[in-house]
Design a protein that fits this description.
It is a single chain. By secondary structure, the protein is of the alpha+beta class. The chain is 27% helix and 27% strand. The strands form four sheets. Strands 5, 7, 8, 9, 11, 12, 13 and 14 form an eight-stranded mixed sheet that branches. A hairpin with a 3-residue loop joins strand 1 and strand 2. Helix 3 crosses helix 5. The chain starts with a strand and ends with a strand.
Length: 237
């Protein structure tokens, strides 16, 4: 997602991992609406009810939280929905993460939350096994070059701003998978029951084929100066 434009660089939000970086204009490409039909699969969350003891989370708190949630069986329940994402309750092996952080004196109880409201949220699409798709790219290009070329020709310089994300159930317990952890205030969850693996794989292979097939999108796309909040294809290695 495009965040900000500079003279020869672009600040982007990487939907694979939930963090931001700045890249050169030549590493940015437009994207076709077809590749955005599947909603982004991972959503932005924070641990409800807690905040850092100081102005920022301590390194000890970050390590403690990441260790307990990364790759561990979790139960989650959405308690709040705001513009910033989903406020969730996380339980690991019967241990409430918020209560445990407070007990370890790594966090403090958060004050009264702001008024909640339901909105479409910025989210991420899990990269998952995208590294495995490179071997499929050539085959996809051979099988449907005309389709790709037609799509590219009709969608050059397309930076849609109406992308969608999956939505997590409110006040219902579910078992999430962790896509990325930045801190207790920022992490990304997937709801496995909502992930369509086949469609996700089609998007990943289609995206790889699209970017490798039509290099001309690069120049034409940047001439349109995409707006902040628009979806795009951005090189990342």
């Amino acid at each position: 997602m495009v965040k900000e434009l500079f003279d020869d660089k672009v600040a982007i939000h990487l939907v694979d991992y939930g963090h931001s970086m700045t890249i050169k204009n030549i590493q940015l490409r437009s994207i076709t609406p077809k590749l955005l039909k599947l909603p982004f699969q991972a959503v932005c969350c924070w641990l409800a009810g807690v905040e850092p003891v100081g102005s920022e989370w301590s390194s000890e708190a970050l390590l403690w939280f990441q260790t307990l949630v990364d790759g561990q069986p979790l139960n989650a329940r959405v308690l709040a929905v705001t513009e910033q994402g989903y406020g969730v309750e996380l339980v690991s092996r019967g241990q409430n993460m918020a209560a445990a952080l407070i007990a370890e004196q790594l966090a403090k109880t958060k004050g009264e939350p702001a008024k909640e409201r339901h909105v479409h949220l910025e989210s991420t699409m899990k990269q998952g096994d995208s590294f495995q798709t490179s071997k499929h790219t050539e085959a996809v290009s051979r099988e449907m070059p005309r389709e790709i070329q037609t799509a590219v020709a009709s969608d050059v310089a397309c930076f849609p701003v109406d992308w969608k994300t999956v939505e997590l159930p409110l006040n219902e317990s579910f078992q999430p998978c962790v896509a990325a952890v930045i801190s207790p205030s920022l992490f990304y969850l997937l709801s496995p029951t909502q992930v369509d693996q086949q469609k996700l794989q089609e998007v990943i292979t289609g995206l790889a084929a699209y970017c490798s097939t039509y290099n001309a999108t690069l120049t034409a796309g940047m001439e349109s100066r995409p707006a902040a909040g628009a979806a795009c294809c951005a090189q990342f290695s």
